[in-house]
UniProtKB/TrEMBL annotation:
Protein name as catalogued: Peptidase M14 domain-containing protein
Record SUPFAM superfamilies: Zn-dependent exopeptidases
UniProt cofactor(s): Zn(2+)
InterPro entries noted in UniProt: AstE_AspA_cat, Peptidase_M14
Organism of this sequence: Pseudoalteromonas tunicata D2
């Protein structure tokens, strides 16, 4: 989202013309098909690989205009097992969310498949992945678009897929990152698009979780934080006792009204819901460490659920 200061008129919301100007500034930097789809295909012996949607953006021509969306499901669905959803890449630029979901599928899912029906959507926003972008090609944020008649194809496709499962989710792990570019690119772009003031916030140095204010599940969040602390450092609160403008509920945890805000984490009534926020720009974090933290979230969360329900 570079050069947004050159787009439109200060104090006036963007229309179609301004959004097209913004789109013209975006460039493909990596390949969804080479980086992600190839790994999904390679998991075909362990999972049922299903296409759950097809994004179509003719305004991208002559570049790639269509992106297939894939989900990993159990080869044998068992109705007596609870269902767990893992989503990555709702914001395509948040790299460890995508590769963390894939790493879980490759390295850890098998040990939990006896207890759960695992449904894994590794990359919800493929164009965002390719262009390292928060928005989709229409300058819409998929992670503010999980509601009826969604303006984001990415969000609508995922909601339809989850609805067609025909089951109530027990848990949902939504894998994200908070990056320095949130302040340098994405929040300035949001302010320009909406003709509003969006003050920069302090980017926390470390990992944190976003729980659901309507169903916080504090012990669940705490168990995950304690486990992730063995992999990467946990973000402290700022001088106001907040993380990204929200009050700290406990170490490394804030809460949002997920459904009201149209967040991916609010798409269901799952008992256990958490949104991860890895900090890949930390001087002490490596890309592999960020991926490992995402995997640890899922495994420690599932371990907590198993302990609670088997007690």
């Amino acid at each position: 989202m570079t050069q947004v200061s050159t787009i439109g008129t200060s104090g006036v919301k963007w229309g179609d013309s301004e959004k097209q100007q913004w789109l013209a500034l975006q460039a493909v930097k990596r390949s969804y098909f080479a980086d992600v789809v190839s790994q999904i295909d390679a998991l075909g012996s362990e999972f049922s690989v299903e296409q759950y949607g097809q994004l179509c953006y003719p305004e991208l021509a002559p570049a790639t205009t269509e992106y297939p969306l894939f989900v990993l499901k159990p080869k044998s669905w068992q109705t007596d097992k609870p269902t767990v959803l893992v989503t990555g890449g709702v914001h395509g630029y948040e790299t460890s969310g995508v590769h963390g979901a894939l790493a879980f599928a490759k390295t850890a899912a098998a040990q939990y498949s006896q207890a759960f029906n695992l449904v894994i959507a590794p990359c919800v926003s493929p164009w965002g992945y390719e262009t390292i972008n928060r928005w989709n090609p229409t300058a819409t944020d998929p992670n503010r678009s999980f509601y009826a008649n969604s303006p984001a194809q990415e969000s609508a496709a995922l909601m339809k897929m989850v609805n067609e499962l025909g089951v109530e989710l027990l848990a949902h792990f939504d894998l994200h990152e908070t990056t320095d570019s949130d302040n340098t690119e994405f929040r300035p772009a949001l302010a320009a698009r909406d003709a509003q003031t969006h003050d920069n916030w302090n980017i926390p140095d470390g990992f944190y979780l976003v729980g659901d204010s309507e169903n916080p599940q504090a012990e669940f969040q705490a168990a995950i934080i304690n486990a992730v602390a063995t992999v990467t450092h946990i973000a402290p609160a700022d001088e106001n006792g907040e993380i990204i403008g929200a009050p700290l509920e406990q170490l490394g945890v804030i809460n949002y009204a997920k459904t009201k805000l149209g967040l991916c984490g609010g798409l269901s009534n799952a008992m256990y819901k958490t949104t991860t926020e890895v900090y890949p720009d930390s001087a002490t974090a490596t890309p592999q460490e960020c991926i490992a933290a995402q995997v640890m979230v899922i495994t420690s969360g599932l371990d907590f659920i198993l302990a609670q329900h088997n007690a």
